């Protein structure tokens, strides 16, 4: 089986003894043209992969920062077709692989095949479906494979070892390791608490292991070195978009996001 | 997702939580372990005669069960048709059917060794029932309630706080039941090790729809036995209101294999059939996913959950339990809806004709029943689940009818 663009990007860092940096933003916040500039900025700042959140009305896995970002985007009547059109436009301008973070409620409504066709056309290399746990993912995982899209599976601190095998069976791209039991958000996720889980996963799979939920600072990325292959930072980036509704406010947000992303990328990339 | 109807129709869900094609578990991985743990604890509790005896004792001595099946003589005469009976869940301790489930799940909580309980509430009846169960057992309790519902249901908020529960107003989204469920799930994501989430309806991921249905089935079991005593056999039709659908599931389930019994669920028709004006997921919704379960849901073409409306906070929900979706598609249960105004009128008629003040939720079922009974013959019978009493709604009814209390 040929390596996916995602595994390839993350493995290159791993071979160099470095970690990958994966930032997250929600599409359509503050609007879709801004999403294009945000993605390009994150790509230039050193992102190895960019996670794009599909705004959803009832995101039960998300904390207040990402909820607000989704609410702002949906408040402007963001439509799925426009989201895909925007990603198609920007994905051609960058080499960084894009991963969609999307509720199964949205995928199911669109129709699984039809959604994957749109996602492929837009240039998504993978999907994270936070409410489609391993047990329910068999059918969808087979379909994503047909489309050449990775289905990234999540492992939680509450996941018993026996469940890991079930999850790994449908996983591709990388394994999303949830650092703390809870929703997304800025917290002090301590590396030592998930160390045992990461060690166990490392024995079970060759896929890169990336840690997210509660990862917000360079120091946390530093602490994950040697234990994980990448760090996912969402809320700590998205919160820079508070006040980005005005053109001047957005320019300010963009600059601070660029600086913050460069700092996180530097922490991840030194060997 | 392929459809499958099992016979007898009561033999659901399967081990994956499927009611035909509906149900299952669409939740973050963080919650999966807790759901498996809950399913196992419930299976072992079901086999434990001591668990059943404890719950039965509570239902008898604390709740006041069995409650009566009441023949509504004047309403029957007025409709000029079928004999109308009410299963009096309004006479339960705390004034609604919700206590049946809250006590059952509180016992499960203790069985699992968990030390904290959270719940969501819409009208406040499930919140009150859970706060009551927690006070009874001395378990700390937090109830999530949409800010809009906190306003509409002040009395229930005060009751919950008096019982020692913490009531957390939810300010996200539409500030109603749906957002209260979101917040409860988010709390549970981080507290899952020591906390049990007592969901109040037959919604959410497996095993919740099954557990809530089973604990509420005491309604239908009692009603069925009472029908044999009072009517001398099965009723012609049974009726219940449907929001998430817990009183209806509890009423219907013991009758679903009785093929001669017509079964009708009544949803909230709100102001009109226009999107946003009602809360009739089965009548007007489509198949989709909400709150961890695959069922009928009111959502737009992108899968975003729609805003809904009902005069009754307890029916103001864009989804419905997966077993109702299964019963709808199999044709076993008919679902219809009735408007805000019809429900308000039925509440007043019921109060003046029978001396019983029903909840606005229940009044939807009563409105349908009055119309339906008049089309039936006097040797037929129709049994309605009187799911709760109306005291909690009087502030809102007074406001809507321009009166002062």
TrEMBL record, chain A:
<protein>
    <recommendedName>
        <fullName>Tryptophan synthase alpha chain</fullName>
        <ecNumber>4.2.1.20</ecNumber>
    </recommendedName>
</protein>
<keyword id="KW-0822">Tryptophan biosynthesis</keyword>
<keyword id="KW-0028">Amino-acid biosynthesis</keyword>
<feature type="active site" description="Proton acceptor">
    <location>
        <position position="62"/>
    </location>
</feature>
<comment type="subunit">
    <text>Tetramer of two alpha and two beta chains.</text>
</comment>
<keyword id="KW-0456">Lyase</keyword>
<feature type="active site" description="Proton acceptor">
    <location>
        <position position="51"/>
    </location>
</feature>
<dbReference type="InterPro" id="IPR002028">
    <property type="entry name" value="Trp_synthase_suA"/>
</dbReference>
<dbReference type="Pfam" id="PF00290">
    <property type="entry name" value="Trp_syntA"/>
</dbReference>
<dbReference type="InterPro" id="IPR013785">
    <property type="entry name" value="Aldolase_TIM"/>
</dbReference>
<comment type="pathway">
    <text>Amino-acid biosynthesis; L-tryptophan biosynthesis; L-tryptophan from chorismate: step 5/5.</text>
</comment>
<dbReference type="InterPro" id="IPR011060">
    <property type="entry name" value="RibuloseP-bd_barrel"/>
</dbReference>
<dbReference type="InterPro" id="IPR018204">
    <property type="entry name" value="Trp_synthase_alpha_AS"/>
</dbReference>
<dbReference type="GO" id="GO:0004834">
    <property type="term" value="F:tryptophan synthase activity"/>
</dbReference>
<comment type="similarity">
    <text>Belongs to the TrpA family.</text>
</comment>
<keyword id="KW-0057">Aromatic amino acid biosynthesis</keyword>
<dbReference type="GO" id="GO:0005829">
    <property type="term" value="C:cytosol"/>
</dbReference>
<comment type="function">
    <text>The alpha subunit is responsible for the aldol cleavage of indoleglycerol phosphate to indole and glyceraldehyde 3-phosphate.</text>
</comment>
From TrEMBL, chain B:
<dbReference type="GO" id="GO:0004834">
    <property type="term" value="F:tryptophan synthase activity"/>
</dbReference>
<keyword id="KW-0663">Pyridoxal phosphate</keyword>
<protein>
    <recommendedName>
        <fullName>Tryptophan synthase beta chain</fullName>
        <ecNumber>4.2.1.20</ecNumber>
    </recommendedName>
</protein>
<comment type="function">
    <text>The beta subunit is responsible for the synthesis of L-tryptophan from indole and L-serine.</text>
</comment>
<feature type="modified residue" description="N6-(pyridoxal phosphate)lysine">
    <location>
        <position position="98"/>
    </location>
</feature>
<keyword id="KW-0057">Aromatic amino acid biosynthesis</keyword>
<dbReference type="InterPro" id="IPR001926">
    <property type="entry name" value="TrpB-like_PALP"/>
</dbReference>
<keyword id="KW-0456">Lyase</keyword>
<dbReference type="InterPro" id="IPR036052">
    <property type="entry name" value="TrpB-like_PALP_sf"/>
</dbReference>
<dbReference type="InterPro" id="IPR023026">
    <property type="entry name" value="Trp_synth_beta/beta-like"/>
</dbReference>
<feature type="domain" description="Tryptophan synthase beta chain-like PALP">
    <location>
        <begin position="65"/>
        <end position="388"/>
    </location>
</feature>
<comment type="subunit">
    <text>Tetramer of two alpha and two beta chains.</text>
</comment>
<keyword id="KW-0822">Tryptophan biosynthesis</keyword>
<comment type="pathway">
    <text>Amino-acid biosynthesis; L-tryptophan biosynthesis; L-tryptophan from chorismate: step 5/5.</text>
</comment>
<dbReference type="Pfam" id="PF00291">
    <property type="entry name" value="PALP"/>
</dbReference>
<dbReference type="InterPro" id="IPR006654">
    <property type="entry name" value="Trp_synth_beta"/>
</dbReference>
<dbReference type="GO" id="GO:0005737">
    <property type="term" value="C:cytoplasm"/>
</dbReference>
<keyword id="KW-0028">Amino-acid biosynthesis</keyword>
<comment type="similarity">
    <text>Belongs to the TrpB family.</text>
</comment>
<dbReference type="InterPro" id="IPR006653">
    <property type="entry name" value="Trp_synth_b_CS"/>
</dbReference>
């Amino acid at each position: 089986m040929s390596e996916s663009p995602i595994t390839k990007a993350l493995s290159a860092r791993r071979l160099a003894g470095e970690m990958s940096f994966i930032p997250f933003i929600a599409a359509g916040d503050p609007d879709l043209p801004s999403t294009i500039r945000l993605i390009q900025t994150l790509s230039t700042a050193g992102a190895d992969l960019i996670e794009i959140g599909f705004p959803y009305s009832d995101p039960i896995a998300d904390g207040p920062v990402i909820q607000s970002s989704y609410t702002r985007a949906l408040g402007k009547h963001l439509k799925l077709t426009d989201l895909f059109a925007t990603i198609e436009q920007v994905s051609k301008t960058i080499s960084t692989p894009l991963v969609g973070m999307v509720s199964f409620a949205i995928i199911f409504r669109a129709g699984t095949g039809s959604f994957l066709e749109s996602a492929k056309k837009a240039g998504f290399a993978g999907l994270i479906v936070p409410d489609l746990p391993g047990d329910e993912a068999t059918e969808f995982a087979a379909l994503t494979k047909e489309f050449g899209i990775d289905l990234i599976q999540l492992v939680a601190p509450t996941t018993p070892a026996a469940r890991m095998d079930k999850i790994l069976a449908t996983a591709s791209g990388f394994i999303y390791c949830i650092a703390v039991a809870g929703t997304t958000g800025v917290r002090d996720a301590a590396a030592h608490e998930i160390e045992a889980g990461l060690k166990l996963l490392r024995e079970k799979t060759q896929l890169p292991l990336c840690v997210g939920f509660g990862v917000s600072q360079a120091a946390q990325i530093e602490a994950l070195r040697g234990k994980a292959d990448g760090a996912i930072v969402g809320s700590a980036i998205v919160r820079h978009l508070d006040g980005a509704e005005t053109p001047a406010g957005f320019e300010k947000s963009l600059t601070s996001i660029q600086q913050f992303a460069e700092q996180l990328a530097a922490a991840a990339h030194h060997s | 997702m392929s459809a499958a109807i099992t016979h007898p129709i009561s033999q659901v869900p399967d081990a994956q939580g499927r009611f035909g094609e509906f149900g299952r578990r669409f939740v973050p991985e963080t919650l999966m372990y807790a759901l498996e743990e809950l399913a196992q604890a419930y299976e072992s509790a079901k086999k434990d005669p001591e668990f059943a005896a404890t719950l039965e004792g509570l239902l008898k001595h604390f709740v006041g069960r069995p409650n009566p099946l009441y023949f509504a003589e004047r309403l029957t005469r007025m409709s000029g048709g079928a004999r109308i009976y009410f299963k009096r869940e309004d006479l339960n301790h705390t004034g609604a059917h919700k206590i049946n489930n809250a006590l059952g799940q509180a016992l499960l909580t203790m069985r699992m060794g968990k030390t904290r309980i959270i719940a969501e509430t819409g009208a406040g009846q499930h919140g009150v029932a859970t706060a009551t169960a927690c006070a009874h057992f001395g378990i700390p309790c937090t109830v999530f309630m949409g800010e809009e519902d906190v306003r509409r249901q002040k009395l229930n908020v005060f009751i919950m706080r008096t019982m020692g529960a913490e009531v957390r107003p939810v300010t996200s989204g539409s500030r109603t039941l749906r957002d209260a469920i979101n917040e409860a799930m988010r709390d549970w994501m981080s507290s899952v090790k020591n906390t049990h989430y007592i969901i109040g309806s037959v919604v959410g991921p497996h095993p919740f729809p099954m557990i809530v249905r089973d604990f509420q089935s005491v309604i239908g079991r009692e009603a069925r036995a009472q029908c044999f005593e009072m009517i001398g056999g099965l009723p012609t039709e049974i009726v219940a209101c449907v929001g998430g659908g817990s009183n209806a599931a509890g009423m219907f389930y013991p009758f679903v294999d009785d093929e001669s019994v017509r079964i009708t669920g009544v949803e909230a028709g709100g102001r009109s059939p226009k999107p946003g004006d009602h809360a009739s997921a089965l009548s007007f919704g489509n198949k989709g996913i909400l709150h961890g379960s695959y069922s009928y849901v009111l959502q737009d073409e992108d899968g975003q959950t729609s805003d809904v409306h009902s005069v009754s906070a307890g029916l103001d929900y864009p989804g419905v339990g997966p077993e109702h979706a299964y019963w709808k598609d199999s044709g076993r249960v008919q679902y219809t809806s009735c408007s805000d105004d019809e429900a308000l009128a039925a509440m007043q008629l019921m109060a003046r004709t029978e001396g019983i003040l029903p909840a606005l939720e229940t009044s939807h079922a009563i409105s349908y029943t009055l119309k339906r009974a008049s089309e039936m013959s006097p040797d037929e019978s129709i049994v309605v689940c009187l799911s709760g009493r109306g005291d909690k709604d009087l502030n809102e009814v007074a406001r809507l009818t321009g009166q002062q209390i």
